[in-house]
Amino acid sequence: MQGGGLRIYAMLYLLFLYAPIILLPLFAFNSGTIIAFPLKGFTTDWFAQMWENATLRRALMNSLTIAVSSAIFATCLGVFAARASTRFTFPGKGPIMGFIMLPMVLPEIIVSMSLLVVLLGAGVELSILTVILGHTLICMPYAIAILSTAFASLDPSVEEAAYDLGETKWGAFRLITLPLVMPGIISALLISFTISLDEFIIAFFLAGNEPTLPTYIFSQLRFPALVPMIMALGTVLVALSIVLLALGEYFRRRSLARTGSSDTGGFL
Prior knowledge:
Elements: H1 2-28, H2 45-52, H3 54-87, H4 93-101, H5 108-121, H6 128-152, H7 156-164, H8 169-198, H9 201-206, H10 213-220, H11 227-259
């Protein structure tokens, strides 16, 4: 009885969690303009309208620029922080790392308002660059969490052997360490890209007059006639997110396999 109850609970939980996502493609390919059952017919017109929308294309390019830039910056900074936290001991190491990881647990609305006040107080004009700054801040803890596992699982004797053979610290890092943690770096890039692409609150506060994909979707939900097109866009975004998360998980597991560490959990 207890096992049956747990199975029913799990099924209801999964239904509640994924039913809205399953409904996206159903209504995206529905020819009716009203989001309701019964469905009227199959069409791909909403995807065509989505591609022909100039404002949507601009928002997409802005979001891709922000996501790629934020992922690169967050991963590069994450490499330095993860390397320092796993290989060196220095005063205040715990509080410093805790401070760096703080955006992971802080409400995004607090981070957004704080950044907005600081940037406006410093006379910085809101633009795509300010969104990149905010997204780098919130993506970096996730990149550090992935990269810390990759660096911590490396055997220090491998680098020590390179030093004994006359290699410099930079040479050992570039030729030995970096290739071994490369799957973790790719995983951090993909996860950071996904987080930035889907993020709304910081983009809403810091984008100024430049639309991003999430803010554009939010602004269009006021118009019922455009909702099917938004459903089509949501379908594309969900598919892209699943692919990126699957790739990130693949490279994370590949990193664990290359370094010989155990798998203690993942994204999927």
